[in-house]
Amino acid sequence: xxxxxxxxxxxxxxxxxxxxxxxxxxxxxxxxxxxxxxxxxxxxxxxxxxxxxxxxxxxxxxxxxxxxxxxxxxxxxxxxxxxxxxxxxxxxxxxxxxxxxxxxxxxxxxxxxxxxxxxxxxxxxxxxxxxxxxxxxxxxxxxxxxxxxxxxxxxxxxxxxxxxxxxxxxxxxxxxxxxxxxxxxxxxxxxxxxxxxxxxxxxxxxxxxxxxxxxxxxxxxxxxxxxxxxxxxxxxxxxxxxxxxxxxxxxxxxxxxxxxxxxxxxxxxxxxxxxxxxxxxxxxxxxxxxxxxxxxxxxxxxxxxxxxxxxxxxxxxxxxxxxxxxxxxxxxxxxxxxxxxxxxxxxxxxxxxxxxxxxxxxxxxxxxxxxxxxxxxxxxxxxxxxxxxxxxxxxxxxxxxxxxxxxxxxxxxxxxxxxxxxxxxxxxxxxxxxxxxxxxxxxxxxxxxxxxxxxxxxxxxxxxxxxxxxxxxxxxxxxxxxxxxxxxxxxxxxxxxxxxxxxxxxxxxxxxxxxxxxxxxxxxxxxxxxxxxxxxxxxxxxxxxxxxxxxxxxxxxxxxxxxxxxxxxxxxxxxxxxxxxxxxxxxxxxxxxxxxxxxxxxxxxxxxxxxxxxxxxxxxxxxxxxxxxxxxxxxxxxxxxxxxxxxxxxxxxxxxxxxxxxxxxxxxxxxxxxxxxxxxxxxxxxxx
Amino acid sequence: xxxxxxxxxxxxxxxxxxxxxxxxxxxxxxxxxxxxxxxxxxxxxxxxxxxxxxxxxxxxxxxxxxxxxxxxxxxxxxxxxxxxxxxxxxxxxxxxxxxxxxxxxxxxxxxxxxxxxxxxxxxxxxxxxxxxxxxxxxxxxxxxxxxxxxxxxxxxxxxxxxxxxxxxxxxxxxxx
Lengths: 688, 176
Prior knowledge:
The complex is a heterodimer.
Chain A: H1 2-30, H2 33-63, H3 69-74, H4 81-86, H5 92-111, H6 122-142, E1 149-152, E2 158-161, E3 169-170, H7 186-201, H8 203-215, H9 221-225, H10 227-252, H11 262-287, H12 291-314, H13 328-349, H14 366-398, E4 402-404, H15 406-426, H16 437-460, H17 466-497, H18 501-511, H19 513-538, E5 540-547, E6 551-554, E7 557-568, E8 573-584, E9 587-592, E10 595-599, E11 604-608, E12 610-613, E13 617-626, E14 633-642, H20 645-662, H21 668-687
Antiparallel strand pairs in A: 1-2, 1-3, 5-14, 6-7, 7-8, 8-9, 8-10, 10-11, 12-13, 13-14
Chain B: H1 20-45, E1 46-51, H2 52-57, H3 59-62, E2 67-73, E3 79-81, E4 86-93, H4 98-103, H5 107-116, E5 122-128, E6 140-147, E7 153-161
Parallel strand pairs in B: 1-2, 5-7
Antiparallel strand pairs in B: 2-4, 2-6, 3-4, 4-5, 6-7
């Protein structure tokens, strides 16, 4: 019954969003406020309806109604309540519904803002949001219905259908298959929603961008209105990616954090184009340049978001051999192709209206360096995209499937990441408009000296790899430049206002949130870079089988096997857990408990490392194998991962910086004043 | 400087017509660097994706090259030396084309049948490392490595997928 109710609400939401699209477009064409209002009401109505649908599904999941195929696939009776609830996004059908729900929530939130100055955008924002929403809802209604149930026909056949076939009986399996044990991790509970929040938030700036194209309003209003949406989207996407890495490090048991897996890349792609967008909108706001380019970037980001949603959840990419397993594939590609054609068509149509107001004059000006930043990000995107489609291309042209693995990505993106780090150190020092090598050199020589000193120190400690030295040097450069910029700002403020340093810092950051928040993000990035350099270039490992009391040595660490216990738990696991004593330079530093959980319901084991983390390095122990009865000996694999903790710490700093940048400003009129001033200057310039 | 630049270049990126040359040179340099990176890394990182049958047929040509092979794990053949962390097992051929797999009734069915069909091409595999949790009978193994002169495949990377969990897009727990 509940399943029918949920489906009814879903269907209604789908029909209403179709109506809303029509009403919005009609209202805009006829300039009829009543129709636009009606479309807005439709938009607002989708949210409660999809909420009801989602609640129905969550109730089924929690109740353990295994007649529903989706419930059967993703839950089992031994799972704790929080996992049953979060199983809403544990499978494909539920994820799609969850996506729709988020989109309805965000688009409705946008509808509630004040529209007085952007009236003309409204119908088109509604139309674009609803087209996207209708696509996802349609997918749920027709192809990936989470409410389909098991039935037994009169002929004794078991079928899956939404409604009871004539004469059929309901079939309820006694228990579900349960969520894959690898996914039963706290990180896994928030990682997908974070990614999805990021994905979905990008739809809003896209909708405004398209509205700007359709209405031909070529100022930067669409960017200003959606600035915070963009930052929030980026914040969540970044958070999702960082959480995913952490989860891989904690659970996947190979001592790594990023594997250049196609699914990871699918989530990284919109992040890359979104990052480029985030930087290049600043030039449009400041200089009125890059208008078309920004439009291209937001369109690209939207397309990559849709592609990413499809690839991360549909499972098509887990093997390059299974590229069309799911029925939703062709539809997704059609939707992406149509969106691309229409958006780019609109852009071409408005090409002349979106002419740039300013020009670039100096190669080393801030805007030119922003352009370099954009090119580098596009380079990263090209690498990732090439890696993804290369198997298809090679098969098309040579008939031979050739894939590219992590070595390809590492080799191709490494220099680009390094160049971006360098840019992060240089760009904040360059001036808008005009900047020469001389002025830039003047600002740069002190930080450069500091970074050379850092390279010297690292060299003295015995590091000889040129890449590592360059990496450490650039990290030092970015840190000094960023701190220098902070100090400069605080000093200037102290001088002009007489405030104490802390008050000056607080007010400075409060006033220019995006700039100083952005710098905090940069600091977070270099901290993460430190972690990446540490684990990628200096990871060491060893393995061996130990009797009780025996030890393994790795670098400065000695790990002793104390004991091993094997026991069953109440939640359906058999656990083998070793006790390992760890000492560093001969000093005991504690015990670690690497273990192996075997899940009875899915028949799958899962390796949980024993981990000791410090800012200097991590000891990461895996329990590989053991003598089952006597538990006298066991095999371990041990990694020492230098500096990797900086990756996670940097991730946190990164997020804090994003929050500073995205925090609602108390002075919204400030922007307006600035824009007005710029317009006045332009008028004056034209009058010359 | 020159006020004649009223007409804008029709590109997505704004550049001053007077000083355009240096921007174009700069952009072309960056572009060329990116293309070079992609092209050179592609040939360095390329892996042929073959089925067991194809690898057998082209053994001479593929020897010593980095290749990716997909096959079904034969449970009885798994030998695990936990002292030296060496795993030996055999895989049987499964079709490489997804349409073919669909036609034969889906991946789960194909894996099940291939594991029982002794007429299919088979290959010995050696993998050094921790035994992955998913290495068991009828699992799909995607192996990256090189074919040795002894006809044994030396895998450097081993990705595994379980037939029962086939619908879920689960990251494989695999050795690196």
